[in-house]
Amino acid sequence: MYQLLIIDDQSILADDLADMLPWQDIGITVVHRAYSAFDAIDIMSEHPIDVVVTDIQMPGMSGLELIAEIRLKWKHTKCILLTGYADFEYTKEAMKLKSSDYLLKPVADDELMGAVSRAVVELEEEWKEISSAQRAKYTLREQLPKLREYLLLDLLTGKQSNHTQEVQRKLIDYEIPFMMKDTVHLMLVRMDDEHNRYDGESEALIEYALSNIATEIFADRLHVWHCSDYHGYTVVLLRSKIDPTEYSRSDDELNSWIELRAFELQQLARKYLKIGISILMSKQVEFPNDIALQYQSSLTNFRHFIGEDRELFVSLAKEPTRGEPQLLSELYRLPSLSQLLEIGQWQAASDKLSAIFEEIEVHWRNSPEHILEAYFMIASAIASLIHKNKKWLADTIGEDFHIIANGRTMNTVNELREWTERVVAQYRNFIHVEEKDSRSTLIHQVQTFISKHLENASLQSISEHVYLNPSYLSKVYKSETGEGISEYLLRVRMEKASVLLSQTNERIYEISVMLGYQKPSYFIGLFKKHYGITPQEYRNKIGGS
């Protein structure tokens, strides 16, 4: 449930604290260890750490300096200081940095366990307050948040024009901290748990609690504006609180910060709301002119990159999205057939087609014009979606393409229904194959990178190479291969080690460095855990045989 990080430059002490105490008894499920403050920051950049236990006296960066850094980037993380000195100045500084506890070394096991347990309780109380049902009900009763939500939804769907004066007036009247021509990020958030677990009121309260947590997480640097759309997504718009002309950090730095906060939102939703969520973050666009088009693009990308998978996070801030032909949106009513197919709601699309055919049969059975109107609408929807995926219509639906190209008319509802069922089935199969192919290519890219850069390969370097978030990459790789990236990387390194030990005269410390392990002792421990004997014993055994 909670993750703990122990930092001490004396690795033996850090390892003993991590391995010897029953952390699971107080809700700690994952224990990380670091031997310097810099290693600790790297670990916190990749994992949602809840509680930190750190020594004060460390080379390079002290424990107090580390906590100051943590306060800037991870304000909800609880920090506990360990020191061998009963120095009042240290105590004052620890209080100033809002440390949860300050313990003198050597610390008794029960004393440390108690301090961490209290920190966990503090953390639970903080997030329960943020996500409490009472706070959600109060927000739900307020009229102003609903007006803000309706305005954002209208901007996303094109119901609200982008006329400068009208939009600006509503932004001021509704007290929304967004301005015309702002640069914004758009995020789609989907609750992955089945909706039938909740009644309408409970689901609304969970959505508001989730929105409150999101607002709290991003509040340090971003204004947050959110709404629920017609497809069951929560749409979140993010805008920097700092004037762009004064903002000195790079776009990449801001994107990385948002990604970390989004990953934290997933963890907190699972921990406190007991729900899984998937998130897709878009590239930066201009408000309000570009958000409707970006919203449609995000729906497509959500289906393409996440689909029916659960609890994934995808960022397209650094990855260029594929080009999109313009849609004739006036031909469709929300939710249109095109939108339902685009986000993979196959049953809803089938129901909509059935309703269209039924209406023609009941009211316009003898009207060729109405049959033709439905045919053009369906053909246009299929063509636009296939072109969005950068494929040719003829290559995707085969012989049925010639019905469109040759201008063949549909004379009966049954004829139209049969053609539509074939075309939609072929489009659905195309999407399924494309998703599988893209993931196979990804696995090949990961394994090729590892084989070429074994000495410095890590989850972070691999994810940067393939332009994907580490969490998303890990889940996709595990889903496709049944083996985690870290497990695969360890296996490849151990296999390479066995080859080097048996076929070369390289020294063990040299082999350790070649495999990416700076500490030979750490490499020796991993090798023994993997093979049951030390590297030297392995070499002796191979040489003797």
TrEMBL record:
Keywords: Cytoplasm, DNA-binding, Phosphoprotein, Transcription, Transcription regulation, Two-component regulatory system
GO CC annotations on file: cytoplasm
Modified residues (4-aspartylphosphate): 55
Localization per Swiss-Prot or TrEMBL: Cytoplasm
Single GO BP term: phosphorelay signal transduction system
All copies of domain Response regulatory, residue ranges: 3-120
UniProt-listed InterPro entries: CheY-like_superfamily, Homeodomain-like_sf, HptR, HTH_AraC, HTH_AraC-typ_CS, Sig_transdc_resp-reg_receiver, Tscrpt_reg_AraC-type_HTH
Keyword check for DNA-binding: yes
Molecular functions (GO terms): DNA-binding transcription factor activity; sequence-specific DNA binding
Domain HTH araC/xylS-type: 444-541
Listed CDD domains: REC_YesN-like
Pfam families: HTH_18 (PF12833), Response_reg (PF00072)
Protein name: Response regulator
Organism: Candidatus Cohnella colombiensis
